[in-house]
Amino acid sequence: MAARESPDPPLEITYKNLISGTTQNYRRPELPVVEECELPLIDLKELDLGDSEKNLACKKLIAEASREWGFFQVINHGIPSHVLEIMRAEQVKLFEKPFEEKKTYKDLNFSAGSYRWGTPSATNVNQLSWSEAFHVPLSDILASGPNIHNNTLSSTMEQFAARVSELAKKLAGILAEEIGKKTGFFEETCLPSSCYIRLNRYPVCPVVVQHPQMLGIMPHTDSDFVTVLQQDGIGGLQLVKDGNWIAVKPNPHALIINIGDLFQAWSNDVYKSVEHRVVANAEKERFSAAYFYCPSKDTVIESDVYKRFSFGEFKKQVEDDVQTFGHKIGLSRFLVPPGGSSSSSLSGGL
Ligand SMILES: O=C(O)CCC(=O)C(=O)O
Ligand SMILES: [Fe+2]
Fold first, then answer.
1. Would residue 27 show up in a list of annotated catalytic residues for this protein?
2. Into how many domains does the chain fold?
């Protein structure tokens, strides 16, 4: 295959100087990595057996995992396997396209900037994400009407989103109920068009030999209520638990669920939005698809721990911080100062 037709973004060439530099490449102290482990595995079948004891026990497990891990995996989640398989097949087909084509992908009504690769702001190798992604607001897909381009990718994403959002809504409702909050909140605020799908590909990373700590995606928390993640069998996802990085063992039958920043704030820090990252792989490429369950931008998050903020303000703050500091600061930006009031308005805010 001619070089210009390669599907891979030119990560190695673009970041050559960062990769080959040594002295300026200070690496911040790493948390120790603990061995691969299984996330709490929750069988959602228990919710629908008509057995109220099992139903309650299952809800408790969901809440407990969200408090203690911020992450869990679910089986018997109700999403037909063909929906997941078609999504994955379309995702692979999309990423197989030559890099030059992905950069300007016009077949879909994806907004500008949906396709991302590497880390444009990286000034040292530790800030480099060895990956490419389509980060797609579902409003792009739904706005284009039913299958306007006769495009199987957009109709597949629409079908995937419809099913996965049902799962996210169900889990969010259970988590709300477990802390005595209104479950209807999500139906009112998280609309089909306010959510996002992010299709990730982690190309093989030959540089791992020189830089064993190379990451596929930088440590981050998600800026949503709940994320539903479909990963393949390669592995590489890690999360922080009790001050250590834990490697998640892939389970081919399960979907991964994690709590995002909005739920942490809305639950007054009961549920945890936990930092996670993906390590690069020297031998195998990896795919994942994340569904971000988000409210409309004007939705206000009320919390006793954080100043009240709209989702739009939160997103804007994250974007500004990434621009200024090269990384997200997140919820700590919105903490109520000691002795302060959570209803105080942000400057230029509500
Ligand atoms: O690929 C993964 O396993 C994680 C992806 C992720 O964290 C994200 O897209 O926010
Ligand atoms: Fe994430």
1. no
2. 1
